[in-house]
């Protein structure tokens, strides 16, 4: 699918601010894909569709979790966690994008997980560092991402866990596993 057609399809699904975020994530992901020598056109499609399900009704997303037999524990962490996993299926059913690499990256873009592929990592981290983001610590992540994308993803997980704990929000186990994996590897 061409960029223009893909952007037109997601534009219908998103609010203007989220659409602008999507364009910035796409440009960031393309830059990372060039650097890390991945398929730029394929990363582009994954980035464009990464928040496809963001504004779907929470009850609709819940029904997809049930009917598609996604992990049922997703329902215990608030609706914000559903748009990745549900979006990865919706793009196949509604848009006809059936590609394991693209669908995996969209599935895990919010929580991350251990053992992410480089493709998963680029979508996960592009969402975190796109130029519109101003999370505490994001500058450090931007400064390492072209040298050490594992470190960048670990920092993003650590910062997100800190943020969620500060706000007494539940933390999905995949996010903890990404954090723990980084500690094991870097000692
Ligand atoms: P966005 O869709 O572009 O806004 O970005 P994300 O898909 O990364 O979603 C970000 C939201 O998910 C933020 O509100 C985070 O606080 C929240 N979030 C990220 N990881 C977790 C997690 O492990 N548990 C919960 N409950 N929320 C999370
Ligand atoms: Fe998202
Ligand atoms: Fe994110
Ligand atoms: Fe996003």
Explain what you see.
This protein has 187 residues and is an all-alpha fold. The protein has one domain (3-186): Hypothetical protein af1432 (Orthogonal Bundle). It is built from 10 helices and no strands. The protein has helices spanning 3-11, 16-35, 40-49, 58-67, 83-95, 100-107, 118-129, 138-144, 149-166, 173-186. Helix 6 crosses helix 7 and helix 7 (118-129) packs across helix 9. The termini are far apart. The structure holds guanosine-5'-diphosphate (GDP) and fe (iii) ion (FE) (3 copies). One fe (iii) ion (FE) binds at residues 50-51, 54, 83, 109-110, 127.
What is the 3D shape? globular
Q: Return the CATH class.
A: Mainly Alpha
Order of helices and strands: HHHHHHHHHH
Bound molecules: guanosine-5'-diphosphate, fe (iii) ion
Largest sheet: none
Features:
mainly alpha, binds fe (iii) ion, Hypothetical protein af1432
Task: Detail the topology: elements first, then pairings.
Layout: H1 3-11, H2 16-35, H3 40-49, H4 58-67, H5 83-95, H6 100-107, H7 118-129, H8 138-144, H9 149-166, H10 173-186
Helix pairs in contact: 1-3, 2-3, 2-7, 3-6, 5-6, 6-7, 7-9, 8-9, 9-10
The protein binds guanosine-5'-diphosphate and fe (iii) ion (3 copies).
């Amino acid at each position: 699918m061409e960029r223009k057609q893909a952007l037109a399809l997601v534009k219908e699904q998103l609010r203007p601010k989220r659409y602008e975020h999507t364009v910035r994530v796409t440009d960031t992901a393309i830059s990372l894909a060039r650097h890390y020598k991945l398929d730029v056109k394929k990363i582009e499609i994954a980035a464009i569709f990464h928040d496809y399900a963001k504004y779907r009704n929470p009850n609709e997303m819940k029904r997809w979790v049930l009917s598609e037999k996604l992990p049922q524990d997703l329902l215990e962490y608030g609706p914000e966690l559903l748009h990745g996993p549900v979006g990865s299926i919706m793009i196949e059913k509604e848009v006809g994008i059936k590609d394991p690499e693209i669908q995996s990256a969209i599935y895990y873009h919010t929580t991350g997980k251990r053992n992410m592929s480089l493709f998963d990592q680029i979508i996960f981290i592009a969402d975190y560092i796109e130029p519109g983001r101003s999370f505490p610590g994001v500058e450090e992540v931007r400064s390492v991402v072209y040298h050490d994308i594992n470190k960048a993803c670990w920092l993003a997980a650590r910062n997100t866990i800190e943020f969620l704990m500060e706000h007494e929000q539940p933390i999905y186990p995949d996010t903890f596993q990404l954090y723990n994996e980084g500690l094991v590897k870097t000692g």
